[in-house]
């Protein structure tokens, strides 16, 4: 589902006429999907005594989605509001800013939705799969790793096609706008498909953490030098 949204959003940034509210809506849909995916594929061992964990994550997720969508569309809103139409501004807003912003906001939504994992901790296990304890430090490590992998996935998948399309335009390989749009779609699909396994393999699904890096109560409960946790996706 993220692929067509990704292609449409990327194509919209290159259109001659684009409205900031349309881009904001696309960002909202995109971050809603990725946030829902994060919610369903996180580590489920964290507990909350204040109110149901799922409810807390949904509230956090809605806030993160709204914020990410607004930040993603902000450069274009700023450009349109102040009629900054110079070639340099067009380059910065349409070519350079979208990739780092999308990567940063993707990492941000992961961190917000999965914040209960580093607030309340996740289970750590020994080599035999026996649960040794619940660690906030392991939860923080798991969330950081997942956020970084998500930022690399979407940031790179947005940046590389833009760079490649620029060279295609300069070399005049695509003779008309329709051909250029087809080339852009092919590049986005190829880069996103290639980056997906790369981002998933950046960190192992079963993460490792040294006992010395965990809380004192966990260190005293086992002799294992390395413990393991479920990182989530």
TrEMBL record:
Signal peptide: none annotated. It comes from Chionis minor. This is SFXN4 protein. The keyword Protease does not apply. The gene is Sfxn4. Keywords: Amino-acid transport, Membrane, Mitochondrion, Transmembrane, Transmembrane helix, Transport. It is found in: Mitochondrion membrane. One of its GO terms (biological process) is mitochondrial transmembrane transport. It comes from the Eukaryota. One of its GO terms (cellular component) is mitochondrial inner membrane. It is a multi-pass membrane protein. InterPro entries: Mtc (IPR004686). Its main location: mitochondrion. GO terms for molecular function: monoatomic ion transmembrane transporter activity. Belongs to the sideroflexin family. The chain crosses the membrane at residues 58-79, 91-113, 147-168, 180-203.
């Amino acid at each position: 589902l993220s692929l067509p949204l990704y292609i449409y959003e990327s194509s919209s940034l290159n259109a001659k006429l684009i409205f900031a509210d349309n881009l904001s809506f696309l960002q909202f849909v995109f971050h809603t999907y990725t946030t829902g995916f994060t919610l369903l594929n996180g580590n489920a061992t964290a507990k909350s005594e204040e109110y149901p964990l799922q409810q807390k994550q949904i509230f956090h997720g809605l806030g993160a989605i709204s914020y990410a969508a607004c930040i993603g569309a902000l450069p274009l809103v700023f450009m349109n509001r102040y009629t900054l139409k110079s070639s340099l501004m067009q380059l910065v807003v349409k070519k350079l800013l979208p990739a780092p912003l999308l990567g940063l906001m993707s990492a941000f939504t992961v961190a917000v939705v999965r914040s209960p994992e580093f607030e309340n901790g996740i289970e750590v296990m020994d080599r035999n799969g026996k649960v040794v304890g619940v660690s906030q430090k392991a939860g923080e490590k798991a969330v950081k790793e997942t956020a970084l992998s998500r930022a690399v996935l979407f940031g790179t998948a947005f940046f590389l096609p833009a760079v490649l399309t620029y060279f295609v335009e300069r070399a005049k390989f695509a003779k008309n706008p329709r051909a250029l749009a087809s080339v852009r779609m092919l590049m986005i699909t190829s880069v996103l498909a290639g980056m997906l396994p790369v981002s998933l393999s950046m960190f192992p699904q079963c993460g490792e953490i040294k006992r010395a890096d965990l809380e004192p109560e966990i260190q005293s409960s086992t002799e294992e030098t390395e413990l393991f946790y479920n990182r989530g996706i």
